[in-house]
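Late entry, written up from scratch paper. The run itself happened at the end of the previous shift, but nothing got recorded in the book at the time, so transcribing now.
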Amino acid sequence: MPVKQFLVLPRLPERIRALQELAHNLWYCWNWEFVRLLIRLDAEAWERSNQNPVEMLSKIRQEVLEKAAEDDGFVASLNRVYDRYKAYLAQRRWFQEKYPQYSGDKIAYFSLEYGLDTGLPVYSGGLGILSGDTLKSASDIGVPMVAIGLLYRYGYFRQMLSSDGWQQERYDENDWYQMPVELARNPAGEPIRVTVHLEHQPVVLQVWKVNVGTVPLYLLDANIPENSTRAREITTVLYGGDKEMRIRQEIVLGIGGVRALKALGVDPSIYHINEGHAWFLTIERVKNLMRDHGLSYREALQFVWSTTVFTTHTPVPAGNERFEPVQVQRYLGDHVAELGIDWNEFMSLGRIFPDQENETFCMTVAALKTSAYANGVSKLHGEVTRAMWHNIWPSVPKDEVPIGSVTNGVHVQSWLSHDMAELFESYLGTAFAENPDAVSVWKKINKIPDLELWRVHGRRRERLVFFARKSLKQHLVRRGGTETKLIRADQILDPQILTIGFARRFSTYKRGQLLFSDPDRLDRIINNPKCPVQIVLSGKAHPLDTPGKEIIKQIVKVASEERFRNRIVFIEDYDINSARYLVQGCDVWLNNPRRPQEASGTSGMKAAINGVLNLSILDGWWCEGYNEETGFKIGSGEEYDSTEIQDQRDGEELYMTLENEVIPLFYDRNGSDYPARWVAKMKGAIRMAGEQFAAQQMLKNYAEQFYVHALGTSSQLRQDGFASTRSATSWINKLSLAWDRVQIQQLEVGTTESMLYVGHVVPVNVVVELGELTPDDIVVEIVSGRLDSQDQMRPFVSESARLVPSANGHGAPSPNVFAFSGSVQCRESGRFGIRARVRPKHNLFPHTFVPKLISWS
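Output as recorded:
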């Protein structure tokens, strides 16, 4: 006989009933005033519930609630917070003010993980934190976003270290009825469910909703009784299992996510794929367009291409998701059959070289080919990505490969300590919270007195030390530590000395062991009686990453030596809560990846906004953030073919920078109570992070570079029953069939001199045969620039040439030959070259760098 089920809710007195509504919107996690209310209500219950307000309210004693309802001061504070919350939801925002014509549109954002808060563990690391900060910032500035992800029964693993430092994994089951999520329901009040077929078997997905300010996040859940045991496992663990599990999860995310939006009555105008995991949504979108609007496969794919944004985060080819052809066939054969195309044509979407049938299917390649808008997550990562995927567009110079960059940012209010936030509000006003990306706000940072900033930071360092001691004691108790060890745990670290923080995923390229490569030298550094140093570390290795686990073990072994015991601490089970303590309380944030393998590295931004100085390799975001006023660099951006040599030289640079720059500056008090030159750098770091790396600014960049253009294109392509889509597709098909006859017959340079001077203007004429095409179909460009030793133009500029209306190719007999003219200016000295090229031109396309549709002289 089935169990009768009920959902039991806490009985909140009327006067404090607003707590329930506030607890079910993640707005709470970036509003300290509400968190402070919960701590005031019951501090121990707040900690026991893992800082999850829903669970806390469900387990708190009724008499505590009754007492709070009778406390006029508590009720007044609650009402003030609730009024702020309601005003926040109702306010008109930046996007609506600047782009009112698109305020009714929706942007669908897909990601495999979301790091929103400690109490909602559906994230593992940087990608998830970025996704979470994106949703919060979209809410703040009004970007009309709706997000899709998966609801994991166990989420990511909890980390435990054995006595010798070996990482072990524990999976705690999530109770979604005690978390800030709720079942999504249709107007009849019934839970919304959708079905996806995997290997001919139906998988039913239940849809849950998370409120992130004004942005809804929908999470798909396969763990329901209607599914088989194997199907229920799909949403069990984040990044768990093998390739079989990964492809099943990614089909559920992509195809299931599009179906969920349709069931919810949401029809997004454009889609943003955050990393390649969600690319399978493309298949479902194409199928829907073919079925619902009568488009052909190529017409539907053209529309999808024009309305998709893709962000890649992986600068190493091996790190991009790939599946074997037989595996793709098994899971997607039926879906592809509905598209009515040849199997090899579909597989070619995921291959760099379309005709190589043994090449695996790469999700990143497929996303790049089917997204008009693509980007890396820092300027350097954009350069690396263009070089890495250049072979998709072999006839396009690397610098023009259609992959841009939008540097990541962080949600300031989520990562700024409440102590620092109160200080900022006193001197910067409330604008730093209401408009954190405004440059004018951060220009006021010098108004803060040095000593006040230093004292506030000192409090954060003290909080970090106390947190580290508490964490260590908890883990000692779990491992059965002796009373002596527990007493010693209360003596580790010193809240007054220079504190270095290092916390991230322990992948080999992040080189967590670099600081420990010379233990004797490290001993001299950290145990210097005049200038002592301490190090706090944290982070997880993927369960299958044995080399990453070995690095953690190596660090723990060094830290356990008697000479380091009180100066080096590894905090287990890195999560959002411990991350906040670290980025808010350290003095120096260390990051030493192998360049150029760090795509962005947002933890350093979080540290900088709190006045923590970065000590980093010039990689990822730090190439843009570093100058002598904002922090320290390790090396000068060198790259080596040998990882052994690179690690050796970067390790030496790290020690030298610590010894000669970082430590002396921190302890240079010059007879004062604080290090004035260090505090000046702190202010430089805060200003830099606020002006350049707020996630709200990142979202504005996405909106202005991608979203608005894609929304406009989507609107145009949908008009008159997708008539423009059909026309654009017909045009691109025409060009594809006729391009073999497009040739540059002649390139004439209007000078006979072999030596020119800077500033000289050179006339250029180009004669082009277009076959069945017309000048309206193409653009002729004159490309010029300095030549390197390989006769390559780097850098170069391109200028459009003008059609010569009075002549058909200087009197050429063929009617399909045309003349174009232009000029180039010699802008600098050196060897100079001129070429011409022809490529397609269409006003609906953001770019026309189409593989195989470009001709060079």
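The chain has four domains: 14-90, 106-405, 416-693, 742-856.
(Scratch paper discarded after transcription.)
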